[in-house]
Structures are given as C-alpha cells and as structure tokens.
Design goal:
Layout (H helix, E strand, L loop, with lengths): L5 E8 L9 E7 L3 E10 L2 H20 L7 H23 L6 E2 L1 E7 L2 E7 L3 E6 L2 E4 L28 E6 L5 E5 L1 H4 L4 H7 L4 H10 L9 E8 L5 H6 L13 E2 L2 E6 L6 E6 L2 E7 L8 H16 L8 E2 L8 E5 L4 E2 H4 L7 H19 L3 E2 L8 E6 L2 E6 L6 E2 L25 H17 L31 H10 L11 H9 L14 H4 L1 H23 L1
Helix pairs in contact: 1-2, 9-10, 9-12, 10-11
C-alpha cells in the first residue's frame, strides 16, 4: 500500500520515574507492506527489555525480507517460532531459567488485507464505523486475581503457538496495538474515542490518571487506513493473459500492427485510424504474483503520471485482456539516434534539462525513474523543434526503495552495486552517464555487463577527449554527475539544473588523480610561453 494511504503513530512511557521501560515498539510503512510490532518485556527488567527489543527488530527485518513464495501466515508463524526458540535456548544456556521473555503483538498490512498475531496479553484492537473490537486473544489465566499470570509468551517455552487472525480492511479503519499498561488504565470507550487523537494522546491520558506516575510501562501504536491502495482494483480484475499475440488480430477494437519490442508484449496498434502503443502483461504473470504485481504497479504509474515528459497512458474501461494503452510517439530512440554521431552540444544541454526536470516532477511524488538510459528516451519533434519523451514506466518506483540492482548496469551508480537504495544522487549518476554517452557515444566506466561486479577505481576519461566540441563548463557538470565520491557528486537535481542553466557559474572540475600540470594544462602552457619569451628577450639583451 503506498505510503500516502497510511498514517501511523507510536508512543511509550516507562512506569514511575524510570527513564526506560521494558516495552519496545516499531512501526514501518514500506513499499508493499506495513508492519507494526509492540512487545512488553516480562521477567527480570534488563532481560525482559532485551527480549522485547530483539523480538521487535527480528520480526521487522524478517518480514521486510520474507521469501516471496511464502504466504503471509507461513511467514508470520515461522518467524515468531524462530525468535521464540532463540530466546528460550539462550535463556536456558545463560540463566538456566526463562529470563528473555516478552509478550508480542504483530500486525502486517498488505493491500486490503490485515494479518495479525499475538502471544501473551498485549492487545490489538480495530475501530470501524463506530464499532470497537479486540482482534487479539489474551494468553492469561481466567481465574479471578490471576489475570496477570501469562499462559504463553515469547521465550517462555521452546515452542510457541501464537494466536493468528486475518481480516479485510476498509478505508477509515484504525488499528491499535498496545501493552497491558494502556488498556488496564483506559476503558474501551476511552480507547476508541482517543484513537483519532494519536498514540501519544492515549498514553499521556493514561499517565495523567496517575499524576504522571504510571504503575506499568505503557505503549500504543496506531495505524490509520486513509484509503485503500488503488492498485488493488487493477490487480483483482479478471483479465486474459495470453502467451502469444499475432499481427492483424484485434483486441477490444485495437488492431495489432507490429511488435515494437522483441518480447512480443509491446505492439504498435490502430483504432479508428489513430495509432497507439499497447503493452500486454508478461505471460509469466499468470503464475507468478510478483510479476503480476510489478505489471500492475507499472500500469498504475503510467496512468498516474500525467505530464509532458511521458506519453499519455490510459486503461480502457471495458478491456478483456491485461494491458494498457499509450499514445504513440513517432521518433527515434536516443540510442539509435546517436549510433552514427553524438548529439550536438545544444541538444545535449536540452537533454540534461529534460532529464532533470522529469526527475524533479517525479521526486515531488516521492518517485524515481530507476532506469534512465538512452534506450528509454525517444527523440521526436514538436513544431519542428527536437524534443524528448521518456517511454518506460516499468522501473518507476518509490524514492529510497531497496530494489537492489534493478536497472541497467552501465547506468547504475557504484553504490547501487552494494545494494544501496535509489536516491536523487543515484539518479543524477544515471543522468550523467546518459549525457556522457549522448555526447561521446562512450560510457564513463565502459560498458558493464549484467551480473558483472565492476571496478570504479579508475577515473573516467574527460568527455572532451572524445568530443572536442564539448565546452569546459559542460564537461565539469558531467564529470561531477558521474563522480564516484558521493560528497563530490551533485546532491540534488536542482543543484545540477542550476549549473546547466548558469554555465558561467560552473566550478571547474579537477580530477583528483591528475597531476598539477594535467589539471592546469592551459595555465602551464601560458606560463611556459611567457617564461620562454622573457628568456629570449634577456638572451638577446645579453648578446647585444
């Protein structure tokens, strides 16, 4: 679910006058899932707090990196069993008794589905349309006066059986995870009424009842579903995915003219005398939910991005197959355009402006392109003026997302090969490589093959070595964009765009590996010329 569709809050207070308690919580809205964990450490203070922290962090990291082939239920049960066993065996080895013990509440949101589990007496509540209900099940004694005695907890026994549940979500739902320190102090009516005010409000309300001297550690985490992910409707619609499509056949009124890409999934088509591009889902999406999710995300991005940088995209309402339609941009891919000769300096500057302004548009939506390269840029004309279009939507993703080495190797920033997320700086690197290539028909660090682990030790050749027409200021901009040292690379698009628009203010780029003479070649020549001229004058005067 996209980050803008969910709001979260979390807050904890230690009991009495203590600065730190045994509770621990974490809540994260990630690209595809949202995870929230609340743990209330029990037993000896230090060990209980440690168990709460370790359980929370382990589950958060494990669910983030869970195997895509596993169901959510299998993942949750497996990871809970793992951390339970680790803590129990460690307790037995170090203390010969159960010391690393904690309660657990866990919630995972994926699409419109809520997955939850609990062990112990920390709770999960849901409020919807005025109704307030407890979703978790307390693992505690039923006998009067024994309510605080746990019958199950993480680390209490070698094996654990969590209470597990699933529910569908609706827009406007609020979910509360809390330790017993909260629900023992506030009634269900107080909890329900305070949910919309946030976690801090609830915990502080409980604290005020005891003049800010709480009898127990108290924690609350609240998740509010602002709206359901619009991609769900796109995914859940029953649509045909075929292995092959043929020239001349008609799909929902669109007649297929010719495939545009070798994979036979992107076609030039025609409807009522107008040409379009139709892109079908990969055939593998029938069996592989990950591939289906990626295509649905691409369709959603294409429909969402209404700007002149991209072709207009639509999703026909009465489609029977899984595809989307783009306006046909008549032109030449930049890679093909520069096959015979590089672009002119003026066109190179326009290309830089286009890529940077497109990237600025995306970052305002918390997005990055992820695969900026010459193949994805179409060179076309508008009113006899050459302009550019970015034609690929498949790689567009949330900024700072961890997509490992997704993208094209020759355009990947060095840090991306070390699993760094996509940021403005990694996109600037790709822009720099694209400009370098467009103006020289070369890559700064050579062409990099898939699965290759390249070395970035050598400094790239200055673009002017391949194209003497490139002005010094533009060369400095390009070299700063492909700088391997993040401190020296542009930090944001606006910084690079400012220098593109203000050549006179561009600082000269000096290669750290070049000697003083190489860095100041013209100055050395001038000083040498003047020195020789003076020596010649002196020599002439001496002889006369």
């Amino acid at each position: 679910m996209p980050k803008q569709n969910i709001e979260t809050s979390g807050f904890t207070l230690a009991k009495g006058t203590q600065l730190k308690g045994d509770d621990f919580f974490e809540v994260k809205v990630m690209e595809n899932i949202t995870v929230a964990v609340v743990c209330d450490g029990v037993g000896a203070a230090a060990q209980g707090a440690d168990a709460a922290r370790r359980t929370t962090q382990f589950l958060m990291q494990s669910l983030k990196n869970r195997p895509r082939s596993w169901s959510m239920e299998k993942s949750i049960r497996h990871f809970i069993e793992n951390i339970n066993r680790v803590l129990y065996l460690e307790s037995m080895e170090q203390y010969e008794r159960e010391e690393l013990v904690t309660t657990l509440t866990l919630v995972v949101i994926e699409g419109d589905r809520l997955y939850g589990a609990n062990v112990g007496d920390s709770r999960i509540y849901l409020t919807r349309n005025g109704q307030f209900a407890q979703l978790s099940l307390d693992h505690a004694m039923d006998e009067e006066g024994m309510e605080n005695v746990l019958t199950a907890a993480i680390g209490l026994e070698e094996h654990v059986e969590p209470y597990y549940f699933e529910n569908n979500l609706q827009a406007g739902d609020r979910i509360l995870l809390c330790s017993d320190g909260l629900y023992n102090e506030l009634s269900q009516e107080e909890l329900a009424d305070g949910l919309k005010m946030g976690a801090s409000f609830l915990v502080k309300k409980a604290s005020k009842k005891h003049n800010d001297d709480l009898p127990d550690d108290t924690t609350a985490v609240i998740i509010e579903i602002k709206e359901l992910d619009p991609r769900l409707k796109l995914k859940e619609t029953e649509l045909i995915i075929r292995e092959q499509y043929k020239k001349g056949e008609e799909i929902d009124g669109y007649r297929l003219l010719k495939p545009l890409i070798q994979n036979n999934r992107t076609w030039l088509c025609e409807k009522k005398g107008v040409q379009y591009v139709i892109k079908f889902a990969p055939f593998e999406a029938l069996e592989d939910e990950t591939i289906l999710d990626l295509f649905v995300k691409e369709v959603w991005m294409a429909k969402r991005l209404k700007a002149g940088f991209f072709p207009k995209a639509v999703i026909p309402r009465k489609r029977t197959h899984r595809y989307y339609i783009m306006s046909y941009v008549e032109g030449t891919p930049l890679k093909e355009y520069i096959a015979k000769k590089p672009v002119s300096v003026d066109l190179g500057v326009e290309l830089a402006r286009f890529l940077l302004k497109m990237s600025q548009f995306l970052i305002k939506l918390n997005l990055v392109h992820g695969d900026i390269k010459a193949e994805n840029i179409i060179v076309t004309k508008r009113k006899e003026k050459i302009v550019f279009k970015m034609v690929d939507f498949g790689s567009i993703t949330e900024a700072y997302s961890n997509v490992t080495r997704a993208g094209t190797p020759s355009y990947l920033a060095p840090e991306r090969f070390a699993q760094a997320p996509i940021t403005e700086q990694t996109e600037i690197y790709a822009i720099g490589v694209t400009l370098y290539e467009a103006l020289t028909r070369k890559f700064p660090f050579g062409e990099i093959e898939p699965f290759q682990n390249p070395s970035f030790d050598k400094t790239p050749k200055h673009p002017t070595k391949y194209n003497a027409k490139i002005p010094e200021w533009l060369e400095s901009v390009i070299l700063r964009a492909v700088e391997t040292n993040l401190d020296k690379r542009y930090h944001n698009y606006s910084e690079m765009l400012y220098e593109i628009d203000n050549p006179e203010k561009v600082r000269p780029y000096f290669d750290k590996n070049l000697s003083f003479i190489e860095r100041n070649e013209m100055m050395v020549y001038k000083v040498g010329f003047v020195t020789m001229f003076i020596l010649n004058i002196v020599q002439l005067l001496f002889w006369h």
